[in-house]
Write a structure and sequence with these properties.
Layout lengths: L1 E5 L8 E6 L13 E5 L12 E3 L16 E8 L8 E6 L12 E6 L6 E8 L19 E5 L8 E6 L13 E5 L1 E2 L2 E2 L5 E4 L19 E5 L8 E6 L11 E6 L10 E4 L19 E5 L8 E6 L12 E5 L12 E3 L16 E8 L8 E6 L15 E8 L2 E4 L4 E2 L21 E2 L5
Antiparallel strand pairs: 1-2, 2-3, 3-4, 5-6, 5-28, 6-7, 7-8, 9-10, 10-11, 11-14, 12-13, 15-16, 16-17, 17-18, 19-20, 20-21, 21-22, 23-24, 24-25, 25-26, 25-27
């Protein structure tokens, strides 16, 4: 399941795109995946007007095959500059020739009536315009983000292939690819990419970026009007196994390069917490201006974070943007043992498994919602967590906990029993590991 919000028809109301990557294709009976789009309106979502896309839809490239995972990742943004947002759809299980799970991305463009498959683009690594070459299990399209990286007026597309070079290199794996937007959609020229091996620090710290691109986001962290590409590698060695890292790339007109990468881990100066095995720092990402200073901040989930003796209790860290870019200065960290964060840290709560930055109260900087998808609440059967979502308000000093939460239990009926509530939260992008 993937969720993303975007104004696909230009009416100023966000629509909701829902990816169901396990959806059975009616014709082929294969679990190829599909995407539903529900229009927004002044009165909310118009469910009766939902439209559906799969790889059998007229105009959608390729064919539905088992485990394509079409819809596993989604991102929304105006790639062609027409004032309507477009939708990128990841199908990380797509076979390219005989290469299974090589992965592909489909781009559908917005129009006056919403998303259309007319002119849809299909991207994979065996195309000349796309860096690299398709290989089995690259999982190109596992994660996606759309945002303004250079100043040409078009939003750009970033694609994660976190299993690139997996098992064939000792100094990192994964790849992040930046493709430029243009009036005709995703440009066929100028794409750049950086691998996990290329961003390995040379300071003998033992940090290795395994699975770079598991999570992605774009945001202007230094306030110059252009976005930085933020890539998570929660499986990175720091040197702790699965300690996790976040790489921040300043792209601009030159695109991505390893020389423009800043690596942040829980060992970075100012970043709270102690790095440990299986913290999975970077397992969830959201980017936006929390403090209201005109610079984007980055909310990072570490769903594997141990709190005291509680394993996989989870935590989140807010790194604040600055004129110097993203640093650990003034960073905040929260877990469920914080006095005004409800729930209490317990093993396998995985607080921080999903995060989003949104405007919840209509004032000031952006607010946050953080999911603890493994949270068991009163009334749950042991081992079947309802999950909770916990809100924070943004302020000049950063995030402020509100001491309230919502759980999947509140949605339970005689026929519907939600579990792991908050596994996905709709924002500008969706995708990444599921906990």
């Amino acid at each position: 399941m993937a969720l993303v919000a975007g104004d696909f028809n230009g009416d100023r109301y966000d629509d909701l795109a829902i990816g169901n990557s396990d959806e059975v294709n009616p014709r082929t009976k294969t679990r190829a995946g599909g995407v539903w789009v529900i229009p927004g309106s002044r009165t909310g979502l118009v469910v009766d007007s939902a439209i559906h896309f799969n790889q059998d839809s007229p105009g959608v490239p390729d064919d539905p095959e088992s485990f394509d995972q079409f819809g596993a990742a989604l991102a929304a943004g105006d790639i062609n500059g027409d004032g309507r947002e477009d939708l990128a759809i990841g199908a990380y299980g797509e076979s390219i020739g005989s290469k299974s799970f090589a992965g592909a991305v489909t781009v559908l463009f917005g129009g006056s009536t919403g998303l259309t498959a007319t002119g849809a683009q299909h991207l994979h690594q065996d195309q000349a315009a796309v860096p690299g070459g398709a290989e089995g299990n690259d999982q190109f399209g596992f994660s996606l983000a759309i945002g303004k990286v250079d100043n040409n007026g078009y939003n750009d597309l970033v694609i994660g292939a976190p299993r690139e070079n997996d098992g064939v290199a000792s100094d990192g794996s994964g790849m992040v690819t930046l493709m430029w937007g243009s009036a005709s959609g995703v440009s066929s020229t100028g794409a750049t990419a950086v691998t996990g091996a290329a961003v390995r620090p040379k300071d003998q710290s033992g940090t290795i970026a395994w699975y770079l691109g598991d999570t992605l986001a774009i945001g202007d962290v230094n306030g110059d009007g252009l976005g930085e590409v933020v890539a998570g590698a929660p499986g990175a060695q720091t040197p702790h196994i699965n300690g996790g890292l976040v790489a921040v790339f300043t792209g601009r007109s030159g695109g991505l390069s390893s020389g423009a990468a800043r690596i942040i881990t829980q060992s970075t100066a100012g970043v709270p917490g102690d790095p440990e095995d299986d913290d999975r720092f970077g397992g969830a990402l959201a980017v936006g201006d929390v403090t209201g200073d005109g610079r984007a901040d980055v909310l990072i989930g570490a769903p594997g974070e141990g709190i005291g003796s509680q394993t996989e209790a989870g935590g989140v860290t807010l790194l604040k943007g600055s004129a110097a870019g993203l640093t650990g200065s003034g960073a905040q960290a929260f877990d469920q043992n914080h006095p005004t964060v409800p729930g209490g840290s317990e093993s396998r709560d995985v607080f921080g498994a999903s995060v989003a930055l949104l405007n919840l109260n209509g004032v000031g900087g952006l607010d946050a919602v953080v999911a603890a998808t493994g949270e068991e609440v009163s009334g749950d059967l042991a081992g079947y967590p309802s999950g909770t979502i916990i809100p924070f308000h943004g302020a000049a000093g950063g995030l402020e906990p509100l001491n309230r939460s919502w759980s999947g239990l509140t949605l339970r009926t005689q026929v519907v029993w939600p579990q792991r509530y908050g596994l996905r939260i709709a924002g500008p992008q969706s995708g990444g590991p599921l906990f």
